[in-house]
Structure of Permease:
Amino acid sequence: MEPTSSSLAGKASDQSLAQGNWLDSYFGVSRRGSSVRTEILAGIATFLASMYIIVVNPAVLSDAGIPFSAALSATVLISFLSSLAMGLYARNPILVAPGMGMNALFTYTLVQGAGLSWEVALGCVFWSGVLFATLAMFNVRKAIIEAIPPSLRYAITCGIGLFITFIGFKNAGFITGSDATLVTLGNMDASMVTFFIGMMATAILVILRFNGALILGIALTTLLASPMGRLWGGDVVVEWSGLAAWPDFSAVMQVDIWGALRVAYLPFIFVMLFTNFFDALSCFMALSESADLKDKDGNPRNLKRSMTVDAFASMIAAPLGTSAAQTFIESGAGVAQGGRTGLVAVTIAFLFLPFLFLSPLLSLVPGIATAPALVLVGLFMLAPISKIEWSRFEQAFPAFLAIILMPLTYSITLGIAFGFLSFVLIKVFTGRLQDIKPAMWISAALSVVMLVTTH
């Protein structure tokens, strides 16, 4: 007997229901007050808010000498693998991808500033991931959290934000060098005008709360830049080289693991560890508060598993050919859409995967098109500045040094080093030795080593 259309529809419906029930059961979707549809839509929202990293991360890493297409492949692969692990293992609605602060530290401090090759710098990324994994497995986060004062943790995030903004202005030619004043406004040419229009358009899209405002801003600025060198002055910056191609894996396994094990590089490894560890912890805590993603003790849900995923993501990022991966605060976009489970992260992971084959299309994007995104990411990272206790000078001064010295010295590690050193010296000479925890003494000692060996 031939099956009727209604029976076929019924079977399809049963199959869909069974699939939904399996997802519900594994991720605990209904138990968290959500639905499979809501989780998938939340994953799309987070992806749109953060997909700018597919273009911006390779653009930054190419300044370190890693080929754009190879860095793009590494970015997509690590975003896919680590977000998938976050969803399946930690079961949290959080994206893990190469972080903006970490790629800036990698490119502009380790490679351009300290003169490391990008292969050795990847080795530093690897060892910071090993240390991160060790801390995550032994669950020593409480001791480390208590050692570093909150004001310095907030300051480091803010300082990296200012540094990234400065890089955005520099890459666009909006700010240039000057013998008289060190820096000055660039030439009022087609490139500057295009960047400024793109930056303002991106800011307006953010204000209007468009999903994917940064990636829309990048696309719009690329379109504005396409006539340059063709219809008006300036060099040609947008050139078509194709739609799709096989992934470029030329940076895979190029990491120099043993070359990174030099005493002079230990401060760099520590700074990467510190930055990634606290970024991850801050992100988990912020998202757990905003979406009530807490366990029965009031701590962020599955925190140990989430930190472990973040740590191993940093370890495998280096062999793949990119700077460390970390949790993205843009995950809040999906949480705001009602996402509550790991199904959100799994959805994000599979949305990244097709871009593995689109490097020729994405290489269309010029530096002036990614620059507005850098400027605005820097703004977003300045949010914690209001949490610093500016009325307490012993807290405010080290925080201020950390913030201001990062862009002025063009080095994240120098900002952190002088922030740590000034904090310890203030406590020593005001008779408050009990305020200095062991981890802070170690941090200050490593800062001295870095200053002596690299400057």
User: Anything to note?
Assistant: Strands lie at 96-98, 175-178, 182-185, 325-327.
